[in-house]
Write a structure and sequence with these properties.
By secondary structure, the chain is of the alpha/beta class. Helix content is 33%, strand content 23%.
Amino acid sequence: MSGVRKTPSVLLLTAIVLVMSAACGGSSGRPEVTVAAAADLQFAFSDIGALFEEQCGCKLIFIFGSSGNLAAQIGNGLPADVFASANVAYVDGLREKGLILDDTQQLYAVGRIVLAVNKDSGVQAETLSDLLKPEVKRVAIANPDHAPYGVAAMQALQSEGIWEELGPRLVYGENVRQALQYIQTGDAQAGIVALSVADVPEVSYTLIDDSHHQPLRQSLAVLRRTGQEQLARDFIAFVNGPQGRPIMKKYGFLLPGEF
């Protein structure tokens, strides 16, 4: 995309693949469930995964990335059991291709976005128009081409009427976690990221009114190719159940029944 600028540290971060297990250690002989999940879920799903593993006797493997990239990889054969997207449209697309078990698809959250600022940058920014201040040299967002939180950030800036003017300052992360990393490291003084990942020591943030963008309606489903269908179904039920929902709410998501 035009307007993309990368510093050496940004280039290094681009190479990071966010793949993690909810448990430490190597293979233990337990059944494994692989969850391809939107990057905004990294903190919430890590907590949920630890609890789920305790109860299921299984091992969860998370692959975190942008929803669009994960959906494309699933379409190309990515070996996963569950797909948790930050935008229902990507799950709908896989359903149309016959790649999910239709009866497992469900909404599990609506996400929120925040204006985030590096605490050591000296920048004061609490409104979107503050991003036009001359001391704000770079503004990080997830890439709108394939990241739902990047689309929401773009819509918010368009709603404020500053998208075009701000364009030369924008730096794009492959996903919303990478956009946050740019702010954490100071490669960008500010940016727009998911509320669910913004509570980190290096960053202060202000919630952006959700009237500035289309709702981030998040959906998940079991993939048809799964070899662990029951455990995959159990994980989805856990996320949307009495143990998973409080964790999702803790990280700032709106829950089914609240939207």
